[in-house]
Amino acid sequence: MDGVVKSLSARLATANADKKPTQGVARPTREEAEAAVRTLIAWAGDDPDREGLVDTPRRVVKAYEELYGGYAQDPDAHLDRVFTEVGGYDDMVLLRDIPFFSHCEHHMVPFTGKAHIAYYPDGGVVGLSKLARVVDIFANRLQTQETLTAQILDAIDRRLQPRGAAVMIEASHMCMSMRGVQKQGSQTITTRFSGVFRDDPAEQARFFSMVRAGR
């Protein structure tokens, strides 16, 4: 195992010698990833070779493929198809209460919540399921809630070019509830606006009202 970990460190150092930060790092092999999990289990104080843990590294790496699958997906691809036959509809489109889970990039523990997305179409609309997929793609990466909010709105603006867009996220962070200050039940709310939502407070108020309607 030590040989695998040392090999990984040497390979990353070589790969990153002339690499710009924005290009990322070389991806470890599955064997190297499983060895890293074994190291963490041992560091935590347990025996990675005991019966209950011997297959844990393999399971963790497999789970990571799902939990961080957003890195392998392109959100823009899900917003490429715009439907123009909408009978001239040009009012707000709102998709609210989109559930998501993500992982804090500071502690790698989960945060979960709901996203609310609205936009004013300019010539066409996108399938509603595509908005939910965009949320999942960005959420299935190491994140902060603030960055997640901005990325969702920027993708909608970039691909749909609406007259305005709004994103609101409400989430609970386990890095606050299960460690640190240990404040259970607290929620974090983030928003970002563009176009008419950014420029007209009345549109922001309408968005908030529609998100809260029926609650």
Write a compact overview of the structure shown:
With 215 residues, the chain is of the alpha+beta class. The protein is built from 8 helices and 5 strands, in the order αααββαβαβαβαα. The protein has helices at residues 2-15, 30-44, 56-67, 128-139, 145-160, 174-177, 195-199, 201-212, and strands spanning 93-104, 110-120, 142-143, 164-173, 188-194.
Largest sheet: 5 strands, mixed
Structural class: alpha+beta
Helix content: 40-55%
What is the CA-atom radius of gyration, in angstroms?
Answer: 21 Å
* Helix and strand element order: HHHEEHEHEHEHH
Mean pLDDT: 88
How would you describe the overall organization of this protein?
- It catalyses: GTP + H2O = 7,8-dihydroneopterin 3'-triphosphate + formate + H(+).
- InterPro entries: GTP-CH-I_C/QueF, GTP-CH-I_N, GTP_CycHdrlase_I, GTP_CycHdrlase_I_CS, GTP_CycHdrlase_I_dom.
- This protein has eight helices and five strands, in the order H-H-H-E-E-H-E-H-E-H-E-H-H.
- With 215 residues, it is α+β, with helices and mostly antiparallel strands.
- The protein has a five-stranded mixed sheet with strand order 3-1-2-4-5, with helices on both faces.
- Strand 1 and strand 2 form a beta hairpin.
- Helix 1 crosses helix 2.
- The N terminus is likely disordered.
